[in-house]
Write a structure and sequence with these properties.
177 residues, 3 helices, 5 strands, 10% strand, mainly alpha
Length: 177
């Protein structure tokens, strides 16, 4: 049998080597990816870093720069421009968060107001329906009874019916718009 055709069980040392080599390769890849800058210092020593070289290193000694730079390299002439820009960005982000919070609060208030209006409209609709039913019963000519202060039933006379009719008509005018 050809040596390459042997089963993995008969070659455990090969699997062990592969298992140990994989993390090492991953670490090398991550290290190489993190080291985006490459430069020579004044003594001729090669440096690899993910941060730009000091401003004392001349541009001709910078051998490799990152593939994409977000901001130009900071020079010694403008050390205060970065903190001012950072403060402005932080202030802008804070203002944006405050504006978002205000908008969310306003939307919540409008939603609560709308929900309250809908509940009130539903209550008005129920009151209207109940008042219309009471008026129908009152106009039907059936005997109507009221309970007096002592808890006794008394039959409504024509004056009391007219007063009750006017009261119910007022409720209909109020709730049935």
């Amino acid at each position: 049998m050809h040596p390459f055709m042997q089963s993995a069980k008969s070659r455990p040392h090969v699997l062990l080597r592969a298992a140990l080599a994989l993390p090492a390769l991953l670490l090398v890849g991550q290290t190489a990816q993190a080291a985006q800058w490459k430069w020579l210092d004044a003594q001729g020593v090669m440096h690899y870093s993910d941060v730009p070289p000091p401003s004392t290193v001349p541009a001709r000694n910078i051998l490799q720069r990152p593939a994409q730079t977000v901001a130009p390299m900071q020079t010694a002439a403008s050390p205060s421009s970065a903190p001012a820009g950072a403060k402005q960005q932080a202030s802008s982000a804070l203002e944006k968060k405050i504006a978002e919070k205000k908008a969310a609060d306003q939307a919540a208030q409008e939603q609560a107001k709308l929900r309250q209006q809908q509940e009130q409209a539903l209550q008005n609709q129920q009151n209207c329906l109940q008042a219309q039913q009471q008026l129908q019963i009152l106009d039907s000519g059936q005997r109507m009874v009221q309970i007096d202060a002592q808890g006794q039933r008394t039959i409504m006379d024509d004056a009391q019916r007219a007063a009750e009719h006017a009261r119910i008509a007022g409720l209909i005018a109020q709730y049935c718009r």
